[in-house]
Design goal:
It is a single chain. The two termini are about 15 Å apart. The protein has one domain. The chain is built from five helices and four strands; from the N terminus they run ααββαββαα. It has helices at about 10-45, 50-55, 85-90, 120-145, 155, and strands at about 55-65, 70-75, 95-100, 105-110. Strand 1 and strand 2 (about 70-75) form a beta hairpin. It has a two-stranded antiparallel ribbon with strand order 1-2. The protein has a two-stranded antiparallel sheet with strand order 3-4. The chain is α+β, with helices and mostly antiparallel strands and about 160 residues long.
Amino acid sequence: MIEIYTNAAMLARTIKMRMPVLEQATRDEFDDLCNISVAYMRSIAPVHTGRLRNSISVRKQSFIQGTNHIQLRAVVGPDELVHYWMHPEQGTQPSPGAYIKALDRRVKQGIHPGTPAQRYIERTESRVQSMLPITASKMVSNKTRVWRTTKSPKAQRG
Protein backbone atom coordinates (compact mmCIF):
# COMPACT_ATOMS: atom_id res chain seq x y z
CA MET A 1 0.00 0.00 0.00
CA ILE A 2 1.18 3.53 -0.73
CA GLU A 3 0.30 6.53 1.36
CA ILE A 4 0.54 9.88 -0.39
CA TYR A 5 1.03 12.87 1.85
CA THR A 6 1.53 16.55 1.14
CA ASN A 7 1.56 19.72 3.13
CA ALA A 8 -0.73 22.08 1.20
CA ALA A 9 0.44 25.20 3.05
CA MET A 10 4.08 24.41 2.36
CA LEU A 11 3.28 23.68 -1.27
CA ALA A 12 1.47 27.01 -1.63
CA ARG A 13 4.44 28.87 -0.08
CA THR A 14 6.86 27.04 -2.35
CA ILE A 15 4.84 27.91 -5.44
CA LYS A 16 4.59 31.55 -4.39
CA MET A 17 8.35 31.74 -3.74
CA ARG A 18 9.14 30.04 -7.04
CA MET A 19 6.72 32.06 -9.18
CA PRO A 20 9.48 34.21 -10.78
CA VAL A 21 11.44 31.03 -11.60
CA LEU A 22 8.32 29.41 -13.00
CA GLU A 23 7.53 32.48 -15.13
CA GLN A 24 11.09 32.59 -16.50
CA ALA A 25 11.03 28.86 -17.24
CA THR A 26 7.70 29.32 -19.03
CA ARG A 27 9.12 32.16 -21.11
CA ASP A 28 12.24 30.12 -21.96
CA GLU A 29 10.22 27.10 -23.05
CA PHE A 30 7.85 29.35 -24.98
CA ASP A 31 10.79 30.94 -26.82
CA ASP A 32 12.22 27.49 -27.59
CA LEU A 33 8.87 26.31 -28.94
CA CYS A 34 8.58 29.43 -31.12
CA ASN A 35 12.08 28.94 -32.54
CA ILE A 36 11.43 25.26 -33.24
CA SER A 37 8.17 26.22 -34.99
CA VAL A 38 9.93 28.75 -37.23
CA ALA A 39 12.71 26.30 -38.11
CA TYR A 40 10.24 23.51 -38.91
CA MET A 41 7.95 25.75 -40.99
CA ARG A 42 10.95 27.05 -42.96
CA SER A 43 12.16 23.51 -43.56
CA ILE A 44 8.86 22.37 -45.13
CA ALA A 45 7.78 25.61 -46.86
CA PRO A 46 7.79 25.38 -50.64
CA VAL A 47 10.67 27.26 -52.27
CA HIS A 48 10.68 28.96 -55.65
CA THR A 49 12.62 32.15 -54.99
CA GLY A 50 13.13 31.72 -51.24
CA ARG A 51 11.15 34.86 -50.42
CA LEU A 52 8.32 32.96 -48.71
CA ARG A 53 10.67 30.76 -46.68
CA ASN A 54 12.85 33.69 -45.64
CA SER A 55 9.83 35.71 -44.51
CA ILE A 56 8.76 33.10 -41.95
CA SER A 57 9.33 34.46 -38.47
CA VAL A 58 7.79 34.80 -35.03
CA ARG A 59 6.07 37.92 -33.79
CA LYS A 60 5.65 37.79 -30.02
CA GLN A 61 3.21 39.56 -27.78
CA SER A 62 2.75 38.94 -24.09
CA PHE A 63 -0.27 39.83 -22.03
CA ILE A 64 -0.07 39.85 -18.24
CA GLN A 65 -3.38 39.23 -16.50
CA GLY A 66 -3.71 39.20 -12.74
CA THR A 67 -0.94 39.02 -10.20
CA ASN A 68 0.18 35.42 -10.68
CA HIS A 69 -0.96 34.76 -14.22
CA ILE A 70 0.82 35.42 -17.47
CA GLN A 71 -0.43 34.59 -20.92
CA LEU A 72 2.06 34.39 -23.77
CA ARG A 73 1.00 34.58 -27.39
CA ALA A 74 3.04 34.27 -30.57
CA VAL A 75 2.21 34.36 -34.24
CA VAL A 76 4.49 32.21 -36.39
CA GLY A 77 4.26 32.40 -40.14
CA PRO A 78 5.21 34.25 -43.29
CA ASP A 79 5.34 38.02 -43.33
CA GLU A 80 2.09 39.59 -44.52
CA LEU A 81 4.07 41.48 -47.18
CA VAL A 82 4.50 38.16 -48.96
CA HIS A 83 0.97 38.42 -50.31
CA TYR A 84 0.92 34.98 -51.94
CA TRP A 85 1.60 32.96 -48.74
CA MET A 86 -1.86 31.37 -48.85
CA HIS A 87 -1.52 29.98 -52.38
CA PRO A 88 1.08 27.32 -51.49
CA GLU A 89 -0.80 26.58 -48.24
CA GLN A 90 -4.26 26.17 -49.80
CA GLY A 91 -3.36 25.38 -53.39
CA THR A 92 -4.89 27.01 -56.44
CA GLN A 93 -7.63 25.96 -58.85
CA PRO A 94 -7.10 25.60 -62.59
CA SER A 95 -7.52 28.97 -64.29
CA PRO A 96 -7.50 30.42 -67.80
CA GLY A 97 -4.14 31.61 -69.01
CA ALA A 98 -0.80 29.93 -68.69
CA TYR A 99 2.42 31.14 -67.11
CA ILE A 100 5.30 31.10 -69.56
CA LYS A 101 8.53 30.84 -67.59
CA ALA A 102 10.72 32.01 -70.48
CA LEU A 103 8.65 35.21 -70.76
CA ASP A 104 8.18 35.45 -66.99
CA ARG A 105 4.53 36.33 -67.47
CA ARG A 106 1.05 34.95 -67.88
CA VAL A 107 -0.54 34.74 -71.31
CA LYS A 108 -4.23 34.46 -72.19
CA GLN A 109 -3.94 31.20 -74.15
CA GLY A 110 -3.90 27.90 -72.35
CA ILE A 111 -4.98 26.76 -68.93
CA HIS A 112 -2.96 26.98 -65.78
CA PRO A 113 -3.42 23.56 -64.14
CA GLY A 114 -3.47 24.91 -60.59
CA THR A 115 -1.13 23.92 -57.80
CA PRO A 116 -1.66 21.33 -55.09
CA ALA A 117 -1.87 22.47 -51.48
CA GLN A 118 1.42 22.20 -49.61
CA ARG A 119 -0.16 22.69 -46.13
CA TYR A 120 3.12 23.91 -44.58
CA ILE A 121 1.28 26.02 -41.96
CA GLU A 122 -1.20 23.28 -41.08
CA ARG A 123 1.60 20.72 -40.75
CA THR A 124 3.56 23.06 -38.47
CA GLU A 125 0.49 23.64 -36.31
CA SER A 126 0.00 19.89 -35.97
CA ARG A 127 3.65 19.39 -35.06
CA VAL A 128 3.55 22.15 -32.42
CA GLN A 129 0.33 20.74 -30.91
CA SER A 130 2.00 17.34 -30.55
CA MET A 131 4.97 18.98 -28.80
CA LEU A 132 2.94 20.88 -26.17
CA PRO A 133 2.64 18.04 -23.61
CA ILE A 134 6.38 17.35 -23.92
CA THR A 135 7.23 21.04 -23.53
CA ALA A 136 5.00 21.42 -20.47
CA SER A 137 6.45 18.28 -18.89
CA LYS A 138 10.00 19.44 -19.60
CA MET A 139 9.27 22.86 -18.13
CA VAL A 140 7.95 21.45 -14.88
CA SER A 141 10.51 18.68 -14.44
CA ASN A 142 13.72 20.31 -15.68
CA LYS A 143 13.44 24.04 -15.23
CA THR A 144 11.47 24.34 -12.03
CA ARG A 145 11.49 22.53 -8.76
CA VAL A 146 8.08 23.50 -7.49
CA TRP A 147 6.68 20.15 -6.39
CA ARG A 148 8.28 18.75 -3.28
CA THR A 149 7.88 15.22 -2.19
CA THR A 150 7.58 14.88 1.56
CA LYS A 151 7.38 11.76 3.61
CA SER A 152 4.25 11.16 5.60
CA PRO A 153 4.51 11.60 9.38
CA LYS A 154 4.06 7.82 9.77
CA ALA A 155 6.91 7.06 7.36
CA GLN A 156 9.19 9.55 9.12
CA ARG A 157 8.60 7.83 12.48
CA GLY A 158 8.99 4.31 11.30
